[in-house]
Design brief:
Blueprint (H helix, E strand, L loop, with lengths): L1 H15 L14 H5 L4 H11 L12 H16 L12 E4 L11 E8 L4 E11 L4 E3 L2 E3 L2 H23 L6 E8 L7 H9 L8 E7 L15 E5 L6 H14 L3 E3 L17 H5 L5 E5 L18 H20 L8
Parallel strand pairs: 3-6, 3-7, 7-10, 8-9
Antiparallel strand pairs: 1-2, 2-6, 4-5, 8-10
Helix pairs in contact: 3-5, 3-9, 5-9, 7-9
């Protein structure tokens, strides 16, 4: 809490430098003031721990995955971001039987920021916390997959919390949702949507799902100012338009829609956790870097992440979330 307040006061200090000495003339704060709190060093520091050998590849149900969920919970507690579950537990327990022999009992992790005007309407920001574990004695660190999305969610949550602490709480609530069991077959998101949606699905306005955003694929070697977006126009043209407008205003990144083509053989729209929301008529955007030679290999390590790029993409998703949570009406389905 203290650290957050300090960071913001530094931002304000800089914002005031050289502009005006009259504090009263200071403009109201905007999303940009909080997006600036998403920093490469913070992402890097967290990812070097989250994707370290100590976490043993975070295989669902195994000791490394338990370290991962404690890591997430500790950050939310440190930043004063509560759980949406009334008893205050950050973990959604999924019994072993649900994994059909593929894993022991495991947990989704969730944290929640309550909306100031429409608290019952909720935006989900999600990513998977698990990875492949240890195979043939080798640790699969999963720094990009999906360590990058995991630390992005943490930084976004921290930025929204700082905003809330400074009277800029989002109008709608935001649920930060870290799924387990993704690599084994989207089990965590399946459990959340089919068995125990902590927030009713009809009140869930959209899901922004992040799975691998820390690197550059071979196609974009010469210009890393890009991101693949999948799903944005499938259920809501308005969601797609909002996403495009936010990008134009802040980054003008190349949004590559190759994998959004309904005929694309990779079928990514159906292959990560967002699909369990889309199946329930909840519009989604899936953010993705396109993959690379270390995908699902023990060489997906944190030293290979481009932290400035990860920061920019995380800020872009933050701006998009800010707009979706604060606009007058929730995005409409087509
Ligand atoms: Zn993944």
């Amino acid at each position: 809490m203290k650290k957050i307040a300090l960071l913001l006061s530094l931002v304000l200090l800089f914002a005031n430098c050289g502009t005006s000495q009259n504090v009263k003339s200071q403009k109201p704060l905007t999303a940009a003031n909080f997006a600036e709190l998403i920093r490469a060093n913070d992402l890097k520091e967290m990812l070097y721990i989250y994707a370290s050998d100590e976490f043993e590849g975070r295989r669902t149900g195994e000791p490394g995955q338990k370290k991962a969920i404690e890591f997430l919970k500790d950050h939310y507690i440190k930043w004063g971001i509560p759980s949406p579950i009334s008893k205050g537990d950050y973990f959604q327990e999924i019994p072993e039987s649900f994994f059909k022999g593929k894993a022991k009992a495991s947990e989704n992790v969730m944290a929640f920021i309550k909306g100031s005007e429409k608290p019952d309407e909720v935006l989900v920001i999600s990513g998977h916390l698990d990875h492949e574990g240890i195979k043939n004695g080798k640790i699969y660190n999963g720094a990009d997959d999906d360590g990058s999305g995991t630390v992005a969610i943490l930084e976004i949550a921290k930025a929204f919390k700082t905003a809330a602490d400074n009277d800029y709480a989002p109008k709608r609530s935001i649920l930060f949702l870290h799924f387990t069991g993704e690599e084994l077959g989207l089990y965590g998101s399946k459990y959340y949507t089919e068995v125990d949606p902590v927030i009713p699905l009809e009140n869930t306005i959209a899901d922004l799902n992040i799975d691998m955003i820390g690197r550059t694929d071979p196609k974009h070697d010469s210009n890393s100012n890009y991101m693949y977006l999948i799903g944005s126009n499938r259920l809501s043209t308005e969601l797609h338009d909002v996403s495009e407008a936010v990008n134009k205003e802040h980054f003008n990144m190349v949004f590559d829609y190759t994998f959004n083509d309904e005929n694309d053989p990779n079928r990514y729209y159906y292959r990560s956790d967002h699909y369990n929301f889309a199946k329930n008529n909840i519009p989604v955007i899936f953010y993705f870097d396109g993959g690379h030679e270390d995908y699902h290999k023990p060489t997906d390590t944190p030293d290979k992440i481009d932290y400035d790029l990860l920061t920019k993409r995380t800020q872009l998703i933050f701006y998009t979330a800010w707009e979706l949570a604060n606009r007058e009406e929730r995005v409409k389905l087509d």
